[in-house]
Specification:
Length: about 140
């Protein structure tokens, strides 16, 4: 009977999960620390995941422009899900909230997340775009 590799376990976990963001520690129980790190790096290199921060990965798909892996969801959605997973109550920034309520017609250019009074120093980025935190 063939043995299932750690890489196959990681791929199976990604495919059956409805989440778009994965913390590195979510894969820890699939094997030894080094094996899991190697498997996650291989899956990232294959284009199934894209690294968005230290120990943070997002589901990816090939870009329609150049074929390189890009996240399946916008950066703001990735940032909100990361905040949920690390236990920080977060919402979209005040400009995006005004747009949602119909109080403004200006679309914010930056992915801004309101983190309330929480202290967050985690950087979340894809390429040159980075999530900006807003207190309040």
């Amino acid at each position: 009977m063939p043995q299932i590799t750690v890489k196959e376990k990681v791929i199976a976990k990604i495919k059956r999960s409805s989440s778009i963001v994965f913390l590195r520690k979510e894969f820890d129980r699939l094997g030894d620390y080094r094996q899991v790190s190697r498997a996650v790096n291989q899956v990232t290199a294959s284009g199934m995941l894209v690294k968005v921060g230290f120990g943070l990965y997002a589901k990816a798909r090939p870009s329609t422009l150049d074929g390189k892996p890009v996240p399946t969801k916008p950066l703001i959605d990735i940032g909100l899900e990361v905040m949920y997973k690390i236990g920080v109550k977060a919402d979209v920034g005040k400009d995006a909230k005004a747009l949602q309520k119909g109080l403004s017609n200006q679309v914010p250019m930056l992915p801004i997340i309101n983190i309330g009074n929480a202290r967050v120093s985690r950087k979340i980025s894809v390429g040159k775009r980075q999530v900006v935190y807003e207190k309040g």
